Amino acid sequence: MVSNPGSLGNTLECQEYCQRDGLDCPAFSVNYQNMRCDKLDRNSQGRTQDLIPRDGENYFEKICLRGPVATACKDRAWAFERVLGHELEAQLYDRAVPFVQSRRDCEELCLEERSFVCRSALYNDDTTECKLSREDRRTLPSFYRRTNNMKVNYLENQCLPVLTSCPYEETTDSYPTYTDHIQMVGITSNEVCEQFCTQYRSFNCRSYAYYSSNGQCFLSGDDRASGGSG
């Protein structure tokens, strides 16, 4: 594991750092509170039990989507958000596919689905069953729950555009814990920062913070639905 503390405090900077190392960086983690980026020499394939929930930290691993579905995500910094030990209630899954070889195959099935818009999927490492849903933890948050099975992977499709009709809710004296990008050019007001978040394309920007003293705009793909999930 190679660490670069102090200089890499947001997701996109850490991602660029990892991309430059190619195959030598299959995964990385970001500690947002300590502004620390750790390059990892292995991913979680067959090692799900090694992933430990930590507040203020996210884990990312590279996936190689195949075929036409890859184009839907080509401009995205990440294609799916994965939460271990969480799921939607059973009645919300529209389709179940048995004997799916891997989590990546399940993600591709979600992207390939045409009979409905697949917003999330569920993959069970033990049973290899893949379930697809038109709902996610934001469309029906009261039906999203924790399970005792850490082999269950909740997978949320990030290649779909965020619903721009939803208004922002202001929280005073706060900023996103999980900062994914810091924009320092052309930010002259809170309104400009908000517009930048709404129109951002590398990830679905769901929250932002504007710092008028230095003209910085902090963007995050997290909101209350995901920022507190373990």
TrEMBL record:
Q: List each copy of the Apple domain by range.
A: 1-64, 73-159, 166-230
Q: Which SMART domains match?
A: PAN_AP
Report the InterPro entries cross-referenced here. Celegans_DevNeuronal_Protein, Pan_app
One Pfam family it belongs to: PAN_1
Question: Where on the tree of life does the source sit, at the highest rank?
Answer: Eukaryota
Biological process according to GO: anatomical structure morphogenesis
Name of the protein: Apple domain-containing protein
Q: In which organism is this protein found? A: Stegodyphus mimosarum
